[in-house]
Amino acid sequence: MAKSRRVRPATQPPEPMSKVDTAWLRMESPTNLMMITGVLTFAERLPFGRLKRLIAERFLAFPRFRQKAVDDGGSAFWVTVPDLDLDWHVRRAKLPARANKQALEKFVSELASTPLDHSRPLWQFQLIENYQGGSVLLSRIHHCYADGLALVQVMLSLTDAAPTPRRRAELAKVWLPRDKGGVLERLLQPARAGIAAAARLGEKAVDLSMHWLKDPLFMATLARESSEITRELALALSLPDDPATALKGPLGTKKRCAWAEPLPLAEIKAIGRVMHCTVNDVLLACAAGALRSYLRAVGENVDGVTIRATVPVNLRPLEHAKKLGNHFGLVFLDLPVGESNPLRRLERVAASMRELKRSRQAMLTFGLLAAVGMAPPGIQRMALELFSRKATTVATNVPGPQMPLYLAGCEVKELMFWVPQNGTIGMGLSILSYHGQVHFGIIADTRRVPDPDEIVQRFVREVEKLTLITLMEDWSGDVRASDAEATLTRFG
Question: Which pLDDT score is estimated for 247?
Fold first, then answer.
């Protein structure tokens, strides 16, 4: 038997965990594991030995991944593992020789329902070396290590812009400078000017001390903005609970994952141009339409019903893009599942997004998450319940690189990931664009959605509906919501 490969960093003292990271560590429950789960598929076979070397050289270059999370009930710490067992963290997995996409989805679902070992650093990779002529890499990383945007940067650090070592070295020097103003900057920029400073203000506000009270800049900012912040906080906390639907209710301990075949990003952009809205608006409106169709199929009357999704908003300054930890807030986005007209549904989603961009909801939730990290367990449970009652799903949309990436010399064909749901929320919607394609997937509690593929296929049909409407209507003027139903009737 081969001797286990171990990585031995120098012994270091425990490092206090940030308040927000502590909150995510303590949110884990048997019904909602706090893991970010990712799936990368490759056009060719990825050798296991080459993958392990890459993880040792690049992934473990982030010192945080050599540490395990320790919670003593009062505080939480990062403790460096002196003898990290790489063979446990990077493993082989197998599917039947002729396994199809449904078999892969079942395997991913089983991993998404299985907790990580809290006696070790909370991450693991599993490689299926032979899947439909290529390979699949599955990753699971606990949310307390980093938010989704930071982990996108981690995964990008494992990839290269070309398969050959010489070209890798050359392109590594120019990728970020050439992309200035491009996809990486859009991915990592704050949602609005000054939001990073406001996020720091939020953290201070939940843990005031005499030192901070003597900070003139902090006090001036607080005096200038306190009334608006108070209004925003009151609005967020006074939101009514989300309506009861088949998507909300008691949760179990099993998750199911499903994802659609990739869709052309150019098609989504074309819809956005015609409808004068963003790609994000189009995709989330299609998700709302898919949920409407699914709820009607299971016998629910959803006319006039609006549910909410919690949407992560990045609060991380661009210069801190590669730092780990959680630096995001949450906003509550209306999903008008009760609207039958696809264009009106899109208009309402776009209007809701515009309003959220002007609000300070994300900053408030960041500060509240910091407060949750400091609070006693009873208060933490109450705060978590308060948040989760107000939403039905978590929705993430990440614009990824629009160029092919290579990991250990193998081209990444497709990407998909899911962030965890918290509290009593039992479903997550994930949208990721990569190399000219859009990838859409769902993770759901099986007690709420036994077969999430039914929603995935409806999402694809919603995209087709909007594409049909924008193609067939009169291009000489604006597309009107009143025309949509007539067009869909004409063309089935």
Answer: 96
CA–CA separation, 218 vs 442, rounded Å?
41
Q: Is 463 helix (H, G, I), strand (E, B) or coil?
A: helix
Q: What is the pLDDT of residues 467-480, one digit of tens each?
A: 888 876 544 455 55
133 phi-psi bin (left φ>0, alpha ψ -120 to 50, beta other): left
Looking at the DSSP assignment, which residues form a beta bridge with residue 160? Answer: 406
pLDDT band at 449 (very low <50, low <70, confident <90, very high): very high
Q: What is the C-alpha to C-alpha distance for residues 334 and 328, in angstroms, rounded to an integer?
A: 19
| Res 356: pLDDT | 75
- C-alpha to C-alpha distance for 48 and 86, rounded to whole angstroms: 12
Q: What domains can you pick out in the chain, each with its CATH number? A: 6-188 (3.30.559.10), 195-259+271-395+442-490 (3.30.559)
Angle of helix 19-26 relative to helix 361-374, nearest 10 degrees? 70
**CA–CA gap between residue 139 and residue 462 (Å, rounded):** 30
Cβ atoms 31, 251 nearer than 8 A: yes
Q: What pTM does this model have?
A: 0.81
Pick from 420, 272, 417, 269: which is nearest to 349 by CA? 272
Gap between the Cα atoms of 483 and 492, Å rounded: 14
DSSP code, position 62: S
In 3-state terms, the chain is what percent helix, strand and coil (to 5)? 45, 20, 35
Nearest-angstrom CA–CA distance, 77 and 102: 40
